[in-house]
Amino acid sequence: MSKQKLTKEERKLVNELFWHSFILENCYNYERQQALGFAIGMWPAIKRFYHTKEERAEALVRHMSIFNTTPHLVSAISGIAAVLEKEASENPEFDKSIINNVKVGLMGPLAGIGDSFFWGTVRIIASGIGISLAQQGSVLGAILFLLIFNVPHILIRYYGTVFGYRSGTSLMSSAKDSGVLQMLSKGATIVGLMVIGGMSASMVAMTTPFSITIGETAFKIQDYLDQIFPLLLPLLYTLAMFGLLKKGFKPTTILLITILVGILGAWLGIL
């Protein structure tokens, strides 16, 4: 972490970003997931760096792209995004697509780390201690559970904001006129596409029970598809939905199409 000291104004902004980061999941939805909460969490930076209604609206819309990560670590991304927004407000030639590319590139790795640490480790330890005391009738069970889980959470969330802002500031200081930002944007884009590809493979479930009978032998199409190209159907369906989005279809319309495809596929016996 850079040891650069924050100014009084920067520390005030970091504190505001920290408190606003708790809003992240208050507006969760299945279309853009945490995007609305993240956009609201970025308001202190947007309000500080942009001065017209149009500029602020553009920045808010920019942060409405799909976003999802472990809530406890989101403040690190907010800190970096705030520095990038500052650069975008001061430099007309700054490529604003870098902001979302960096967000997408960071949200996947941080989600993996955060979920493993908080949900898979800290929560288990806190629950074990809390439950053992609660079974003895001690109120300390509930109190210790909350403390063991939330003390590291609050500390990591706050210092994550500081780390993100300092890291972003250090990056911008060394990246100007060096092409580092373009390289970072390209790398973040690649990582983001890998995350989306992994999500498509793990979260889109589509198989077919369809089979062809020749003589007395039934050949299951899904078995042959898995041998040729595992998870081919989820990939094709994801690409088809992406194509509809590019053509201007609304997410709600695509959701209805997915429901109809599932119902018709099951009724016809092909899905």
Please provide a written account of the structure.
With 271 residues, the chain is mostly helical. It has 2 domains: 8-198, no CATH class; 205-268, no CATH class. The protein has 11 helices and 2 strands, in the order H-H-H-H-H-H-H-H-E-E-H-H-H. The protein has helices at residues 8-20, 35-41, 43-49, 53-62, 74-90, 97-134, 140-175, 180-203, 221-228, 232-246, 251-268; strands at residues 211-214, 217-220. It has a two-stranded antiparallel sheet with strand order 1-2. Helix 1 (8-20) packs across helix 7 (140-175), helix 5 (74-90) runs antiparallel to helix 6 (97-134) and helix 6 (97-134) crosses helix 8 (180-203). The longest helix has 38 residues, at 97-134. The radius of gyration is 23 Å and the shape is globular. The mean pLDDT is 84.
> Care to count the β-strands?
2
Span between N and C termini?
51 Å
Q: Report the radius of gyration as a whole number of Å.
A: 23 Å
3D shape: globular
Number of helices: 11
Fraction of residues in β-strands = under 5%
Question: Could you give the order of the helices and strands?
Answer: HHHHHHHHEEHHH
Average pLDDT figure: 84
User: How would you write the strand order of the largest sheet?
Assistant: 1-2
The domain tally reads 2
The helicity comes to: over 70%
